Amino acid sequence: MDPHLLRTLVAVARCGSFSAAAEQLGYTQSAVSQQIAALEADLGLPLLHRRPVAPTAAGARLLEHAGPLLLRVEAARADVRRAAAAPVHRLTVAASPLAVTASIAARLARVRTAHPRLDLTLVTFDRDKVAGEVAAGRADLGMTDGIAAPNAPLRLPDVGPLAAVGIAEEGLLVALPADHPLADRTGLRLADLVDAVWLQTTLCPLERLRDLLGDGFRPGLAYTGDDVHTVLNLVEAGHGLTLLPASVGRGVPVLAPRLSHRVELLHGTLPPGPAAEVATALSPSPAG
Question: Which segments within 205-284 are labelled E, that is strand?
Answer without folding.
Answer: 218-223, 242-245, 252-256, 260-267
